[in-house]
Specification:
single chain; alpha+beta; Alpha-Beta Plaits; Malonyl-Coenzyme A Acyl Carrier Protein, domain 2; 3 domains; three-stranded antiparallel sheet; two-stranded antiparallel sheet; 36% helix; 16% strand; extended; Polyketide synthase
Amino acid sequence: HTSAAAGVAGMIKMVLAMRHGTVPATLHVTEPTPQVDWASGAAKLVTEHVPWPETGRVRRAAVSSFGISGTNAHVILEQAAATEAPSREDRPALAGALPWVVSGRSAGALRDQAARLRAFAAGSQDAEAVDVGWSLASTRASHEHRAVVVADGWDGFLSGLDSLAAGEPAAHVVSGEVSGASEGVVFVFPGQGSQWVGMATELLRASPVFAASVERCAGALAPHVDWDLLEVLRGGGPLDREDVVQPVLWAVMVSLAEAWRSVGVRPSAVIG
């Protein structure tokens, strides 16, 4: 018995039934029991797959979970609203370097994983580098032995994975081993003195997420200052003024944090 998970299989089954528009047959039964007066009500036994009836309303279903101790939970499911899939043509082209993260429980496992990823990348016709990077960062477990391959195209990723699989150093590959327990990533925002003329201009061009965040920060600052954030970042404003540099650094750090979050690096804390 699945104990506390009783009912999960039924819920998954019903979600799939909604998705495919099919009412699945009840398992392990061929005819209704004669102990029930089926003619007196609207319920009937489903002995074969049938199309989900079209009623002009969203699909809804009820799932009961009967625990082995006699507990009962009831869940009402409703069909999700239709969403339009994002178009590849609408996405900006990859500009600048991108990280691919790899990990393993041992140094050998890390090399093996790099070899498997290299084989996938070499044989894939449809995969996008940014999609692979996102999946590696956000959907895979992070084990003790880790590495990052940083590149701006397939050739760079393939050569980096070759080096990693062979246990050889490469300029665009960083590897290491986790030491001690970790409570998660912490972002540290620097204080005044870390600025320079032209900082963040490359990210403004290369990262749509970073650029959108900077624009939001510029809008938030505009009613309170007599200078333009984007103009200052591009070298056209008084970056040497204390009342300018501190808000500018704040905007850059907030936007940099958003850029990291967009590729799956989510901080447990932010300080500075």
